[in-house]
């Protein structure tokens, strides 16, 4: 997977989250299914961010 | 000229005042155009200017012939979905109406339209050189178009001009009351007279089932940004086979020096029409749209629920046909007007109260009557809106049953 694919992956997860926000506005009372999706999206983004750092050669502190 | 950097700052980081992520938006013209997730992805992918043209020109140098992305297939599927034979995407519904009027009529001809037609119908007719003859609309509280009167109007045009009208147009669902007209009644009349029938589906196709063949439509016009979960500007022009040659005729112009001709293009479309992000959002939302029209009955059910709840406020009345058969709804709200008379914010109090509850889309300043649209809202959101109106009514001492 290249850098641009990782970036696409994060954008894609965020767009999915936006749909949840739109569906639940303005109170954002999430269902179990929504919470599961949010959790999975966050996990996926964390993995993609890690990969971006590695592939871009960002030096970890 | 160089523009100072400071002056340019307002063009950066553009944001809406009310995001769909944090508000319930009841704006009557916006609900059907809220993007699908796939359309949001398409905007990012195809936002660059000519990004749809990576594989252009195809064998025939025309937008509707492009196979990657699948524009060619989309046009075929779009026509089939509407029960028509051919479809094109243009900039707006009004452009589709203009093209139909321009290509069907001669200057001085008449077009017969319903008295609740959108202003753009009249302007399209004028630009096409046509005169407008209106079919009357019944009075309060239902404001129904007298569909049978189309026959009398056609006769009137015939006796006045010696010619049949160039076309008849019916607004399938009007913008004022959200009344759903029985298109097949006008379709049959037009067919009997041999006059082309243009059905304006700006508020119907894309949110509710529409079958052009069933209602004898020769032309269907639609709005992508109003009803197809697409970005503006996107309009739909769908045709019966019988009108294809007339409306999509090829240009005959030829350069007098170069001898250049452009016979592969379509004259009234001025060649390629909408491309890039708007077209791709329309295409990307198409699977969602095909599925969502099947759930139309539930959308109407939500609207009827909201009407029932708002009419618990004594004096609030939904106008237009009853029971509702569309999600665009017009209310007379005399009790809120009474409140506004003594409120320091006058007519803006209702807008303020709703905005404080993160509900937007009711026109600021209106309290005597207003329109809203619940299309695509969840049941929870519709209940939330109903609760907010009742809460505001009680806060100002209005009688709630």
Structure write-up:
The complex is a heterodimer of chains A (about 60) and B (about 400). In chain A, helix 1 (about 5-25) packs antiparallel against helix 2 (about 30-55). Chain A has about 60 residues and is an all-alpha fold. Chain A is built from two helices and no strands. Chain A is elongated. Chain B is built from 14 helices and twelve strands. Chain B is of the alpha/beta class and about 400 residues long. The interface between A and B is medium-sized, with 14 and 17 residues.
Give the topology, please.
The complex is a heterodimer of chains A (61) and B (401).
Chain A: H1 3-24, H2 32-56
Chain B: H1 5-8, E1 24-25, H2 37-46, H3 71-81, E2 86-90, H4 93-104, E3 110-114, H5 119-127, E4 131-135, H6 149-161, E5 167-171, H7 183-193, E6 197-200, E7 219-223, H8 224-227, E8 235-239, H9 241-247, H10 276-292, H11 296-310, E9 316-319, E10 328-333, H12 334-342, H13 348-356, E11 359-360, E12 369-373, H14 379-395
Parallel strand pairs in B: 1-11, 3-4, 3-5, 5-6, 6-7
Antiparallel strand pairs in B: 2-8, 7-8, 9-10, 10-12
Helix pairs in contact in B: 2-10, 3-10, 4-5, 11-14
Gyration radius over CA of chain A: 14 Å
Structural class by secondary-structure content of chain B: alpha/beta
Q: How helical, in percent, are the residues of chain A?
A: over 70%
Overall pLDDT level of chain B:
97
For the terminal residues of chain B, how far apart are their CA atoms? Answer: 64 Å
- The N- to C-terminal Cα distance of chain A equals 24 Å
Shape of chain B: globular
* Shape, principal axes of CA atoms of chain A: elongated
Treating each run of at least 4 consecutive H or I residues as one helix, how many helices of chain B? 14
Number of strands of chain B: 12
Over the alpha carbons, how many angstroms does the gyration radius of chain B reach?
A: 23 Å
Number of helices of chain A: 2
Describe the main β-sheet of chain A briefly. Answer: none
Number of strands of chain A: 0
Order of helices and strands of chain A: HH
Give the amount of beta strand of chain A, in percent: under 5%
What is the percent of helical residues of chain B?
Answer: 25-40%
């Amino acid at each position: 997977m290249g850098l641009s694919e990782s970036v696409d992956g994060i954008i894609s997860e965020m767009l999915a989250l936006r749909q949840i926000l739109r569906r639940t506005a303005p109170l954002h009372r999430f269902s179990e299914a929504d919470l599961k999706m949010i959790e999975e999206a966050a996990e996926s983004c964390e993995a993609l961010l890690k990969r971006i750092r590695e592939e871009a050669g960002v030096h970890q502190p | 000229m160089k523009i100072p950097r400071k002056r340019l700052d307002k063009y950066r980081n553009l944001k809406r005042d009310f995001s769909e992520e944090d508000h319930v938006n009841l704006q009557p013209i916006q609900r059907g155009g809220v993007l699908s997730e796939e359309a949001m992805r398409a905007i990012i992918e195809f936002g660059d200017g000519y990004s749809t043209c990576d594989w252009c020109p195809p064998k025939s140098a025309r937008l509707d012939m492009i196979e990657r992305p699948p524009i060619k297939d989309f046009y075929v599927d779009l026509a089939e979905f509407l029960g028509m034979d051919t479809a094109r995407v243009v900039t707006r519904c009004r452009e589709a109406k203009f093209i139909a009027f321009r290509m069907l009529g001669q200057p001085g001809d008449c077009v017969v339209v319903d008295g609740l037609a959108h202003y753009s119908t009249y302007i399209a007719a004028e630009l096409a050189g046509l005169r407008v003859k209106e079919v009357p609309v019944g009075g309060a509280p239902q404001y129904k178009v007298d569909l049978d009167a189309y026959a009398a109007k056609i006769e009137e045009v015939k006796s006045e001009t010696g010619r049949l009208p160039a076309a008849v147009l019916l607004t399938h669902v009007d913008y004022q009351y959200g009344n759903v007209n029985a298109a097949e009644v006008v379709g049959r009349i037009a067919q009997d007279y041999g006059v082309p029938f243009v059905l304006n589906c700006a508020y119907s196709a894309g949110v509710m089932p529409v079958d052009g063949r069933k209602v004898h439509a020769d032309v269907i016009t639609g709005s992508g940004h109003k009803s197809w979960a697409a970005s503006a500007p996107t309009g739909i022009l769908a045709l019966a086979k019988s009108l294809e040659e007339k409306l999509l005729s090829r240009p005959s112009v030829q350069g007098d020096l170069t001898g250049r001709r452009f016979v592969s293009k379509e004259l009234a479309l001025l060649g390629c029409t909408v491309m890039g992000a708007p077209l791709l959002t329309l295409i990307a939302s198409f699977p969602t749209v095909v599925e969502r029209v099947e759930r139309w009955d539930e959308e109407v059910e939500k609207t009827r629920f909201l009407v029932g709840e708002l009419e618990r406020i004594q004096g609030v009345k939904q106008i237009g046909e009853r029971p509702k058969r569309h999600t665009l709804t017009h209310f007379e709200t005399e009790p809120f007007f009474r409140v506004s008379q003594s409120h320091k914010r006058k007519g803006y109090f209702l807008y303020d109260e709703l905005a404080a509850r993160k509900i937007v889309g009711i026109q600021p300043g209106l309290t005597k009557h207003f329109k809203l649209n619940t299309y695509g809202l969840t049941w929870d959101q519709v209940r939330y809106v109903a609760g907010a109106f009742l809460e505001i009514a009680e806060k100002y001492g209005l009688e709630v049953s």
